[in-house]
# Entry
Amino acid sequence: MDRVFFDNASTTPIDPKVLEAMVESMKLHFGNPSSIHKEGRTARTVVEQARRTVAKLLNVSIGEVFFTSGGTESNNMALKGAVRDLGVRRIISSPLEHHCVIASLDRLVETDQVEIVQVPLSAKGLPDMVALKGLLEDTDQKTMVSLMHSNNELGLMINFEEVSQMCAEHGALFHSDTVQTMGYYPFDLEATPAAFVTAAAHKFYGPKGVGFIYINADHQIKPLMNGGSQERNMRAGTENIYGIVGLAKALEMAYGDLESRKSKTKEIRAYFLEELQKTVPEIELNGDPENGHYKVLSISFPPSPKADLLLLNLDIAGISVSGGSACSSGAETVSHVLATLMPDSLRKTIRFSFSHHNTKAEVDFVVKKLKEILEPTSVMT
# Structure
């Protein structure tokens, strides 16, 4: 076995059929979608077909879907646009949000534009819904709630429908980073409304460098970038045609095979946990795995010299996993999520995230290597 990739929350390999669709588009659709000649019109048609595909899968209007470079740009667009253009002066969020959300909120505070309120969290890291309701009731300022659907490190999941309903009842805007759940859980944004929803193609077996933002037609904002009329005047710059084609194909495939993929991934995840608990009984599970994202397991190992180098040793053994998110410098640093929830812990946390492509043979290989790495070391007290 060459390599085992158990880091599917950081990215996923491009599906061969997605790659095929992109290559075909590269051959045929070289025109600039802003040009009025035949090649330009053909390219424009391809982009709009992709937009229709995404809109249909989310049950929204095609005028509410805008293609971007990914989740980071989309989240920046939603948060900064809501403050600048929609009069939002108070944002309720969580210290466990993705770095791009936290950094955007910090920037808004620096410019004295908005008050940031952190919703209290349970011991597992879930938002306290009673407290959230109280925060929504205790203000006369225009408010936005920004909570990611699933935490990228722990797999924690908010109740999207409950938050949506609560925001609607209190006249608040709802923004959700769905980068980890788009393509894994169904969305009906007509039945369960949000002001903004963001996604990235490389999390659901599409290409990197492309994503989208859903902007509810009732909450229109101005562009984050200026200089062109592309994306219905919402995003300047020539469209990434091939990336957009790949995104639409990947999302269509994900939802066309949703239950099968989910079943296979859950089976692998359950088998891994069962085998690992037999081999390393001292492990502890972070977050709320029974109710969390079915592809993620955040596991802490007892402190020891070998555990400190576990991420590196697994990589050397041919196993790709993560100590947290993979969106920073690439260096292993203390996760802001774990620092918030377990500030004094000496245990070593590894995030294992699975795919319908993974196999039980791969699980057996990883568990065997973990045993070899950890077994010679006595546990420190």
Observations:
- The first helix runs from residue 16 to 28.
- The chain has 13 helices and twelve strands.
